[in-house]
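Q: I have two molecules that I believe assemble together. Could you output structure tokens for the complex as a whole instead of separate predictions?
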Amino acid sequence: MIERVFLTAAIVLTVLMILSLVRVVGGPTILDRILGGNVIGSKTTILLLLIGLLFEDLGMFVDIALAYALLNFIATLGATKFFLRRRHVFLDELESEPIHKEAP
Amino acid sequence: MNYLAALFIGLGLFFFAVGTIGILRFPDFYTRLHAAGKCDSLASLLVIAGILCHLWQDFSLASLLVGGKILLIAAFVFVASPTATHAITEAALVLGVKPWERTRKRKA
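A: Yes, here they are, computed for all two components at once.
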């Protein structure tokens, strides 16, 4: 009975990840895409734990989930730092009200 | 104990769904960030609590070790999720993403 709960939870999580992918594909700014990727990553961490429970091998999948959580965090921080450094990449994407700064 | 696990997992799925609806429906980047940052950490903790309720029914050394690792994931999520949200917010503020205002005319 509890396995059905885990299976249903895993399926619902997958559907929610696909819904979050809408924000990644069609987000107005690059930061929206980074946010969507972060959300999908945190859902994937939980999904890996549920998959480990379903296959009755949680001892292996918990390590994968831990590594995935670390990687997701580092990837978000890295992407954010990158777009802070390269502002012109971001400004090309921003359609509404671009910032006009004086030339240095 | 199984019912407790199912309750926790159901509550966690509810908060995941609310966060996803917020990400899809809110009008502005900052409000979307609010929905994502709050709902995800709470929902992750609830689902992890449900998994631990199921896991620690039979108490052995192996399940204790695996449960410790899962608690480590929970602790890391509680540190990392606000930090990532803060970093994205700082980038948005520096890059000049404008907050949404009700008085401004909508495009469509």
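A: One point stands out. Residues 56 and 64 of chain B are 7 Å apart (CA to CA).
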